Amino acid sequence: GAGVSQSPSNKVTEKGKDVELRCDPISGHTALYWYRQSLGQGLEFLIYFQGNSAPDKSGLPSDRFSAERTGGSVSTLTIQRTQQEDSAVYLCASSLDEAKNIQYFGAGTRLSVL
Amino acid sequence: GEDVEQSLFLSVREGDSSVINCTYTDSSSTYLYWYKQEPGAGLQLLTYIFSNMDMKQDQRLTVLLNKKDKHLSLRIADTQTGDSAIYFCAESMTGGFKTIFGAGTRLFVKA
Asked: For residue B39, what pLDDT is reported?
């Protein structure tokens, strides 16, 4: 594919609702990452998928957050019972070369929880 | 623990050189990166340097690495208004997937 694609680009939701964010990585990239970017903050690592290995979920902030990657390609990040502090830009990245680990980022989903 | 620090803002005049600085804590870092983020977009890799190098030059970009002081810098020559963006410093270790990003330096270029 042309690049990493994320949808939706913007999502406004009410506190307590569940949301799903989607990421289409670059075709053939085996590694996929989710990050959270809050205003004025760096990138907060959330979760990492590599091939068929079990994902590294060590960055997920609470059990309200979960992610899956189907068929080694598309990934969905789900946030249940959203809170206002979940408001941020959620970025997805994919990578091919594990040694250099150069990551290619999508434009992100801006989540606003009212 | 692992940490990457950089100043939050830098303002320069068009045509001047910009120098963005970064410090990191993990001495086992193998690759160090500079990513650029323009408004409303994701991060884009600008350049990277392997830890056994001291310097890397790519057109207007010069990366300097001081391993002893764990200091990385990015120099942009002849800075243009199109260079206005957030610049992220990042580090990763060999064989590891984890990349640690700094908070980003917002570069303002005044015409």
From this structure: 87
